[in-house]
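Q: Could you write out the predicted structure for this multi-component system? I'm mainly interested in how the pieces pack against one another.
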Amino acid sequence: MNKYSYDELKIGQKESFEVVVTEQMQTSFLNLSGDINPLHCNCDFAKEKGFNDKVVYGMLTSSFYSTLVGVYLPGENCLFQEAEIQFNKPVYIGDKLIVSGEVTEKQDLYKRIVVKAKITANEKTVSKAKLTLGVLN
Amino acid sequence: MDNFEKLQTIFREVFDDESLNIKREYSAADIEDWDSLAQINLIVAIEKEFNLKFNINEISALENIGDMLDLIERKLNE
């Protein structure tokens, strides 16, 4: 786990990691959230609606933004405060996601940073986000 | 747009409320969603809009929107 201090963080600093979405993750998220919408748990329904398969929960995919800031950028000193998230394309079980972020702003008074982040799968952007977080002393 | 109107625009954006009409005497007690995170977002937005830098002592001394406006105008004239 990274442990950047506010002063160590620079505009333009980048971090990324990869993760493969599994059926177990989807089932765990269903149990955790109680979101039984068939788009996420019924393959036939999803196909009827024009998708290739069950669609991975957008908030499951977005949970990796938490990992991005909580583990990588800045890591241990992170206090996650805001997220503005877009779900641009569907994600399917088995997709390999690349989660990446770049520091685009530093707010000295409150030691906050803004991270412009995105998630790609199969070389396409499936999600974009603006993440705002405090950096603990 | 004068400084009060600019401040009003910032408040409306931060609180996502286009009907919000601020008054000089308003404080956090008068705007329901004005919590600590909103305060941070307000100050950061004000710094950007007016191209100013505040310090913690200046912010801690603010008691209402009038104080905030006075501080902005004092810093702009420095």
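A: Regarding packing and overall arrangement: Chain B is about 55% helix and 0% strand.
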